Structure formats: structure tokens, C-alpha cells
From TrEMBL:
Upper classification of the organism: Eukaryota, Viridiplantae, Streptophyta, Embryophyta, Tracheophyta
Catalytic activity: ATP-independent breakage of single-stranded DNA, followed by passage and rejoining
UniProt protein name: DNA topoisomerase
Species this chain originates from: Aegilops tauschii subsp. strangulata
CDD domains registered for this protein in UniProt: TOP1Ac
The family this protein is said to belong to: Belongs to the type IA topoisomerase family.
PROSITE patterns tied to this protein: TOPO_IA_2, TOPRIM
Amino acid sequence: MAHIHRHLAQEARGCTYLVLWLDCDREGENICFEVINCTGIPENEVGRRIFRARFSSVTEKDISNAMDNLVLPNKDEALAVDARQEIDLKVGVAFTRFQTRYFQGKYGNLDSRVISYGPCQTPTLGFCVQRYQQINTFKPEKFWSLRTYIIKDGDEIQLEWDRKKLFDFDVTVMFQKMVPSDGALKITDISVKEECKARPPGLNTVNLLKVASSALGIGPQTAMHMAERLYIQGYISYPRTESTAYPASFDFRSVLSTLAHNPLWSNNVRTLMDAGFVKPRQGHDVGDHPPITPMRLAPEEALETDAWRLYQYICQHFIGTVSHDCIYTRTAVEFASGGEIFRCVGHRVTSKGFTSIMPWLAVGENNLPTFKKGDTINIHKVDIYEGSTTAPDYLSESELISLMEKNGIGTDASIPVHINNISERNYVQVNSGRRLVPTALGTTLIRGYQCIDADLCLPDIRSFIEQQITLIAKGKADHLQVIQHSLQQFMRKYSYFVKKIENMDTLFEAQFSPLADSGRLLSKCG
């Protein structure tokens, strides 16, 4: 870092003005003031000699517009980053150093080089272990359901029982006797409704990371690095944004005109431009950046395979946001016999809308034959289906991202880092389907925190700190007071944790082998 400091100081000699072109988020704002300090230009020159360029993409139009509309760097946002960094560093170092030193050399089959704690990292791991514990304590229950079948126009149709399923076999048998196999069903109601599947709102960082993991099989950290490279290359707008709403002045036609030259979706785009596209749904505007948008056409051969797939999704999502909603007809037919109600439901798409460009979100079509209210139809057969409730699966990266966002753990920029950290530390392993399976170390750590002070691995404290950080960024809280209050809170927890560390050690003893039993060779001294 010292050579960067010297370089900036040298370049600033004799300069009249300083224009800051850092990333337009809180972290970028923080770096702005680091650059100011490096140049030696007094901070009180902000507004006279020091200015800030705000932009969301590196296209010629956006760069020119930013230069024509320079603003001031935001000190409050920079202080918010300082506060978060100081809290995370001091808390993380204190807990990590203590527990690493305590467990180092005690257990032979434990990799104790670094047993880390982090105010964001540990609650992130906590979510994974919580799901693991739910799986381990799950007890399956048998259930039974009536399956009634009819024949219509030569096709067998299975009807859905209104009671869904019962957990008592004898009661299910009783209901089966009320619906004889040689009986008939009366059609008591037919409902035909036009329904709408809404197009997606603009794409923000969290939703991009979730899709990258669940649909493309790309981990959050890798996806974020790819998105940042696409941004630097000018192919997409700034990829770190919480907003899903576009500004009123956004030029959608210009973006569509650019995308129209790719044969993969040129027909969709030209249809929209000829017939008329619609403005995206009203999303959420947090005042940072517009949603992630394609800015320039990328040749497939210019990108690596996964980077192209990510870029392709961003393009398809954007086209989907300005496409029409998907319209379909839902037909529900209700049957009755022996006081029991059964149904069948059909869907027929009348306008594909955005699902033409995003076919994985298409409404599944199943057309029903024609029925008439009041008619009767013979029962083909009735049987009892036996099933069992199943345990939830391990937490997927996509589900974890949702939980982190919901509970205020991390930011759109740091969420991928925290997920990557718990994997790098060997607290979880990424399984097939990008599901996170806690290791023995990860599980034992969380169980240890739970038996000493559950707050250490729950999201509540971190969520509160993030709320305070946001207040600093908005100029509504003093950053020094927030730091002091947060550190005092963790100091009390640290002292108690140190006193009760034996409780965690008991769990480690049960899970890992003592060093003497492992047969690990130690190096000789001297």
C-alpha cells in the first residue's frame, strides 16, 4: 500500500483539482477519503478543489454525464465503512486469537491453525448449522391420502382430495368407504379465471447471486468477481446495487436497440420494439444505483463460458423486465361424492409475455377436457396413498443469501465473502446442488457458542449494528458512539466467553481426538 500512497502523492503535485472516480458505493466513498489523504490536498477543499464523479456504468455516455454533473464525496458514508471495519476487526481478532490459541495443539485430528470468529461470518455459519440440526432431529411421520381417478375422453385424470392428507390410517379408510369405487362423482362447480404471472422487477445484486448459484451453478464469490469484470469491461452496469427500480428517466429503448443485434434474443427484442415494450414493475429504490443492466453487446467468444452464461442471464432478465406479463387461464373443476370434495386444475397460456425470453419461469400447461356443472361422471378407481414427511434439505447458497439479506447479515458486496469464508475455513462443504453441509468443526463451534452465549451465533446483534451503520451513512448517528457502544457490548460477551470456554472444550473433546491419541509427530527443538 505504501507504493500506492507515494504514487498518488507524486501524481497530485501541482494539481489544481481532484476528481474522484471510485466505485459508487459506501466502500468506494471510503476509498475517496483515503485518496484525498494520500494526495495531501486538505479535506476542507471539498467543493472547491475536490469533487466526486457518480456513475453506474463505464459507457461513454455515463462517463460524460458524470463529468458534467460532479458532486461532493459523502463523508457520512465513508465513516459508516470505517465504523463497520473497526468493529469487525477488533471483535473478530479478539475472539479468533483467543479460541485459536486455546484449541491449538489440543486435538490431533483438528486443523486449528485458525479457528476464526466474525460478527457476520459466524451467524452465516449459524444458519447452516441450524438447518443441519433440523435435519438431524427430524422424525418422519406417515400420512395417507385418498387418490380418486376418473376417465374423460379416453384419458385417466387423478383428482386432488380436498383434505390433502391425514395422519390417521383408520380415519382415511373411513373416508375411502364414503367414496365407493363403483360410484359416481357430481360436478359441483367449475371456475374459469384469467390469471397473471408478473414480469420480474429490475435485477439487484442479491437476486443475481441467488440465480447464479441455483440456476447456473456458480458460487456467490465467483459470480461477484465475474460481474465486476463484466462491469469493468463495459458490458454491464455497476453490479453492486440493492435497487430493483429504474429511474424515471432511464432509456430502455437504447438498451433494447443494443441487444437487438444478438441473434439469441433479437426476435424477442424486435417484437418488443415494434409492438411496444412496457416499463418494468415498480421495484424498490434505495437510492444507490439502478438495477444491473446490460450496457454493451458482448461477443460470446470474448468471454469465458461461465462469464458468458452470467452475462446472458443479465440480458434475458432485462428483456424480461420490459416484456408483458404472462397471461393464462386457470380452470378448476370441483367434484363431490359421499360428502368428500375432489378437484382438478388446468392451465392454458394465452400470452407468454416475459416467459418467451425466460422460459424457465413459464407456466406449466395442462389442458382439461370439457366438463359441465351438474353432470356426473363415474369413478374409475379409488385408492389410498401412503407417504412419509421428509426432512428439509441442507441449506443452499441461494437460501442462505436470502436469510442473510432478511436478517441484515452483510451487504450486497460482503455476502459472497462471508459465504466463501465459511467454506475456506472448512466450516462447511459445498455439496451437489451447491448445498452447504456443515463439517464437524463448523457444527461443534456453533454448538459451543449456543451453550455459552447463543447471541454470538445469532443474527440479532449484527442486524442491530447494521442498522446503526446505516444511520451513520445517513448522517443520523455519530460513528464514534456507535463504535464505542458496539465494542462495549462485545467486550462483555468476550469476557463471559473466556470464562466459560470449558463448555465448548467439552464438545470438542467429544468430537476430536486428544493429541496424545492421534500419534502426530512433533518437531524436535534444538
